[in-house]
Amino acid sequence: MAEEVKSTGGNAQEEAKKEITIEEGLRQLDGLLEKLKEEELPIEESFALYEQGIKLVREVTGRIDRVEKKVQLLSESGQTEDWED
User: Fold this and answer.
1) 6 partner at 20 to 30 Å CA-CA among 18, 48, 64, 73?
2) Cα dist from 1 to 27, 28, 52, whole Å
3) What pTM does this model have?
4) Helix axes 43-77, 22-37, angle to 10 degrees
5) Do the beta carbons of residue 29 and residue 60 sit within 8 Å?
């Protein structure tokens, strides 16, 4: 289940536009944690994995925050809005 976050080789704007699902982000974080638990990793690789993890945490947290705001709006107004993110 350990999945590695990999760059597709595209430019940064293309990659920034391509958002992952919350579930996929959590799976990727799990994979990064498993790799970081390995005792034989060079410090440079450990730092790179840590950096990827921080980026994933920020992205997943942002997506969760947006969903929470939409749920709150729905609860308050009783109306559905554009649910696509």
Assistant:
1) 64
2) 8, 9, 17
3) 0.63
4) 150
5) yes
Rounded CA-CA distance 1/52 in Å is: 17
What residues of the chain score a pLDDT lower than 50? 1-14, 16
Question: What is the C-alpha R_g of the chain?
Answer: 16
CATH of domain 12-77: 1.10.287
The Cα–Cα gap between 15 and 12 comes to: 5
Phi, then psi, of 40 in degrees rounded to 5: -95, 10
Sign of the torsion angle spanned by Cα atoms 25, 29, 34, 38: positive
Which residue type sits at 29?
L
Other Cβ atoms within 10 Å of 22 Cβ, number: 15
